[in-house]
Every structure is written in structure tokens, then in C-alpha cells.
């Protein structure tokens, strides 16, 4: 009975803590994440308080981890692909409207420089005289940024009570000075506009009953446009910042229908497939050749050769890539120095599209062949030696052994790994980013696309290097990449299932 009471109390306390956390996440504006956390919390409470859950108690942490770190990012990315989310459209409608209404216009001729003077533990504000207004001072104040204050100014005494604070100390009081409103004897209301000035301001935009905004200076009316996510005038002028709106399938339609966008996207997609496929083919061919060669019995010091050939895989990839970037330098790189000494040529590896792609393949094959060599070596070691002995008795040579024994027996277990390697290189962002950064650029493209960009680096450039930083469009492309990689995975699973089927 006592144990059940403690279990109920602990469950109730846990429920309150989890519910408080969910409410905090929801209050910060992360509705989707709050829903996921609420679902995980409810499932966890039911699992660990119900006597009927059984084995679910042990697998729940894995399920919750998958929901939070796999399913939620996927769903969130997918949802962004249906919005106009970008650097110009970061806020929701209400917050964007508040930001625009908070913009203030300084009335010319009302600027007043000020100084701060300590009075005991308090501070006095003194406004300098202008051509029409006398010098003013405030009563001693306790500056606090907790809430806005309205301070009535009065004519100054003959001299300041203490010397003015230096600028370095004035900066420390800025947070407390910003919410102050100074009222002069002539009924002017002044607020802080600069480090050393107060002035009279008015709202730049006025709210209209229908939700539109009106420019206080020009009278131009800006109505919210639900299609673009901007407050827009009749002439098409937009106010910044914009706000997020749903655009439906617009980003996906742009990938297919907009010729200016379709051409660079299609070329990047084709190069991604070619880059991934050729890398796997060349790296596997080289790794398999070296594995077969190192499996040759008369070869001496095979262990030393394996260690040396495995070094490219042991060295961190980003270091090797940066070293190759220096080696391929057109003017100072060792590769061009050797080519110039032998043949009198200095290839432009980074400015010629074909040479840049060739360079990427060379470096990626160099980074990938040790892994394939190790895989193939292990698979070859698993082949029974009796097969080679029988082949030798039949008079078969090395090529016949490779063609009839080695290749057929290692190809079946190697195929899923080759497909996985293809999927990995499909998203090999590090190599592209560090070696070429997608360059040379496609000069006729309307989006930041390079001739050596693959889809993942192309997406990154759209999301973080384009002037508009189009996160929604980048999310749509990320979704397409996910579908393509998922398709490759399904092909792999289906192919593996076919190969594992028993022969009839």
C-alpha cells in the first residue's frame, strides 16, 4: 500500500513537471515541438505507471529518441517546405505587425543632447538648451529598466550638482534610459534616440481597422498580402519585415515549372548522381584490385602494404581535403608544379568545370578506396581455399579465378554496402564545401548554383548564402533529397531480399 502511494505521488509530480515543460515550449511559439513533447510525455507516464505495458518500458527510450531526433526534424523540415520562411519572412503575422508599429520617426528640430549627473545613489538627467527651449533637468531618479517611466522635466538650476558621467558610464545606463519618456514644460514628450540625444518621435505607421498600416508621412496604405507574406502598397512596394504564410506546393512546382530554376536544379541533380555513381565504381574497383593483389601468397610484406594503403582512411577527412586543396592550387600546388615541369601545363583545377569535377572524383576516390579495400579483403578471406586449390588443379589462371570464384562470391554481400556508399556520397557535403564550395558558379542561374554543387551543398547555399536565405525552398529541396535517398534505401532492401531468397 505504501509503495503504491509513493508511485502515484511520483507519477503526479512527474506529470506536473512534464506539463510545465510542454507549456513553456508552447509559450515560446514552438507548437509542433510542444505537441511532440506532449505525446512523448503522455506515452512515458502511461508506460511507467501502468502494470500492463510490459516490454514497452524497455523500448520506450528508443522510441522517444526516434520521435524527437528523427521524426520531428523530418516533419518540421517537411512543414517548412510549404511556407515562405526566409530571412525576409521570419516572424508570424502578429509579431511582424508589432515590429512595424514600433518603428518611430524623429521629428526634426526636437533633438536635445543630454548628460547624466550623479546625485548620491541616484542620477539626474540634464537636457541642453536649444535656440527656443531652455535647459531642463529631471528630479533625482533611480534608473531601472523594469518598466517605462514618465519624467517631468523642469528648468535647470544655475549649475550642475556634480560633474557629468563619462560616456562609458552612460552606456551602462542605456537599458534604463530607453523606456523613459521626458515631458517638457511645453508639453513635448521626448525619448532616447541616440547615445547622447533625446527627441520627440511619432509612430511611422498607424494601424487601420482592417489590419492595414498607414504611413504617417506619405499617407500610403499597406495592406497585408496573404500570398506573399508582406504588407504591400497599391504600387507593389513592400514593408520589411515580412511574415510567414503557407504557399502550398509553390516551391515544388518551382522545381518543375520555372525554367530559370529547373535548369540549374536538373544539372545539379545529374551531377550528384554521376558523382556518387562514379565514386563508388572507381573506389570499389581500386579497393578490390588492391585487395586481390594483397591476397597474393608470394607477395612479401603484405601487412606493411595494408597499413600504408589504409592511412588515407585513418587520417581525418577534412584534413586530407584541405591538403589536396593546396596540392591542386594552380600556381603554387605541387601537382601543377610537376605537370609544368614534365609537360609544360598548369591545369585550372578550380576554374574549369570539367577539371573541377575530375579533381573532386580523384580526391573522393582517394578517400574512399581504403574502406572498400578492407571490405573486399575480409570478404576474400571468407572464401574457402579449397575452391582455389580445385581451380589450380583444373589449370585456371588468376583472371579465371577472379572472374569465376572471387567476384561472384563477394559481389552478393558487397552489393548492399555499395548502395549504402552511393547514398553516403549522394550527401557528401564536407568534400564539396571544403574543396570547391560548389564553384565554379553557373553564371546564368537565378539561384546560387555551382557546376560542382551536389544537391545537399546546393540546398545549403540557397538556405544560407542566397541574399534572401530561402529556408522554405531549401526545406522543399531537402525533402526531395530525402525521398531520393529513401528510394535508394528501398531499392537496397528489395535487392537484398531478392538475393537472400532461396534458389529453386
TrEMBL record:
It is found in: Cell inner membrane; Cell membrane. It is a multi-pass membrane protein. Its main location: membrane. PROSITE patterns: ABC_TM1. Keywords: Cell inner membrane, Cell membrane, Membrane, Sugar transport, Transmembrane, Transmembrane helix, Transport. The chain crosses the membrane at residues 58-78, 268-292, 304-324, 361-380, 471-491. SUPFAM superfamilies: MalF N-terminal region-like, MetI-like. CDD domains: TM_PBP2. The keyword Endoplasmic reticulum does not apply. Residues 269-492 form the ABC transmembrane type-1 domain. The keyword Cell inner membrane applies. InterPro entries: MalF_N, MalF_P2, MalF_P2_sf, MetI-like, MetI-like_sf. It holds the Pfam family MalF_P2. The complex is composed of two ATP-binding proteins (MalK), two transmembrane proteins (MalG and MalF) and a solute-binding protein (MalE). Belongs to the binding-protein-dependent transport system permease family. MalFG subfamily. Part of the ABC transporter complex MalEFGK involved in maltose/maltodextrin import. Probably responsible for the translocation of the substrate across the membrane. This is Maltose/maltodextrin transport system permease protein.
Amino acid at each position: 500500500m505504501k509503495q503504491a502511494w509513493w508511485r502515484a505521488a511520483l507519477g503526479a509530480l512527474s506529470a506536473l513537471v512534464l506539463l510545465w515543460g510542454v507549456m513553456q515550449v508552447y509559450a515560446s511559439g514552438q507548437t509542433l515541438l510542444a505537441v511532440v513533447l506532449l505525446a512523448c510525455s503522455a506515452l512515458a507516464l502511461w508506460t511507467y505507471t501502468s502494470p500492463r505495458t510490459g516490454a514497452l518500458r524497455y523500448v520506450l527510450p528508443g522510441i522517444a529518441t526516434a520521435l524527437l531526433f528523427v521524426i520531428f526534424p523530418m516533419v518540421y523540415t517537411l512543414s517548412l517546405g510549404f511556407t515562405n520562411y526566409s530571412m525576409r519572412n521570419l516572424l508570424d503575422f502578429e509579431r511582424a505587425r508589432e515590429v512595424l508599429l514600433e518603428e518611430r520617426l524623429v521629428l526634426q528640430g526636437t533633438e536635445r543632447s543630454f548628460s547624466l549627473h550623479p546625485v548620491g545613489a541616484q542620477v539626474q538627467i540634464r537636457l541642453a538648451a536649444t535656440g527656443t527651449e531652455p535647459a531642463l533637468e529631471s528630479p533625482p531618479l533611480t534608473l531601472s529598466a523594469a518598466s517605462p517611466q514618465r519624467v517631468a522635466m523642469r528648468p535647470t538650476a544655475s549649475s550642475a550638482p556634480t560633474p557629468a558621467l563619462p560616456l562609458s558610464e552612460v552606456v551602462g545606463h542605456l537599458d534604463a534610459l530607453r523606456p523613459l519618456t521626458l515631458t517638457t514644460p511645453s508639453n513635448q514628450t521626448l525619448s532616447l534616440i541616440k547615445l547622447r540625444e533625446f527627441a520627440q518621435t511619432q509612430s511611422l505607421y498607424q494601424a487601420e481597422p482592417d489590419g492595414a498600416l498607414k504611413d504617417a508621412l506619405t499617407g500610403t496604405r499597406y495592406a497585408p498580402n496573404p500570398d506573399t507574406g508582406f504588407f504591400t502598397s497599391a504600387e507593389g512596394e513592400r514593408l520589411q519585415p515580412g511574415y510567414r504564410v503557407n504557399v502550398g506546393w509553390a516551391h515544388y512546382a518551382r522545381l518543375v515549372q520555372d525554367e530559370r530554376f529547373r535548369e540549374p536544379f536538373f544539372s545539379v541533380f545529374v551531377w550528384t548522381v554521376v558523382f556518387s555513381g562514379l565514386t563508388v565504381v572507381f573506389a570499389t574497383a581500386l579497393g578490390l584490385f588492391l585487395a586481390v593483389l594483397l591476397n597474393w601468397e608470394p607477395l612479401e610484406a603484405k601487412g606493411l602494404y595494408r597499413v600504408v594503403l589504409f592511412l588515407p582512411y585513418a587520417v581525418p577527412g577534412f584534413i586530407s581535403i584541405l591538403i589536396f586543396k593546396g596540392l591542386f592550387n594552380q600556381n603554387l600546388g605541387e601537382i601543377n608544379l610537376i605537370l609544368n615541369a614534365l609537360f609544360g601545363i598548369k591545369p585550372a583545377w578550380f576554374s574549369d568545370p570539367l577539371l573541377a569535377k575530375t579533381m573532386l572524383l580523384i580526391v573522393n576516390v582517394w578517400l574512399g578506396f581504403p574502406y572498400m579495400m578492407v571490405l573486399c579483403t575480409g570478404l576474400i578471406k571468407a572464401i574457402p581455399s579449397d575452391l582455389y586449390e580445385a581451380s589450380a588443379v583444373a589449370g585456371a589462371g588468376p583472371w579465371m579465378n577472379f572472374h569465376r570464384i572471387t567476384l561472384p562470391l563477394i559481389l552478393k554481400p558487397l552489393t548492399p554496402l555499395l548502395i549504402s556508399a552511393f547514398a553516403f556520397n549522394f550527401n557528401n557535403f564536407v568534400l564539396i564545401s571544403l574543396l570547391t564550395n560548389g564553384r565554379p558558379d553557373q553564371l546564368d542561374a537565378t539561384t546560387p548554383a555551382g557546376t560542382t554543387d551536389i544537391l545537399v551543398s546546393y540546398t545549403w547555399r540557397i538556405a544560407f548564402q542566397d541574399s534572401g536565405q530561402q529556408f522554405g525552398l531549401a526545406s522543399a529541396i531537402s525533402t526531395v533529397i530525402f525521398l531520393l535517398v529513401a528510394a535508394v534505401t528501398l531499392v537496397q532492401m528489395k535487392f537484398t531480399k531478392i538475393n537472400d531468397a532461396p534458389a529453386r
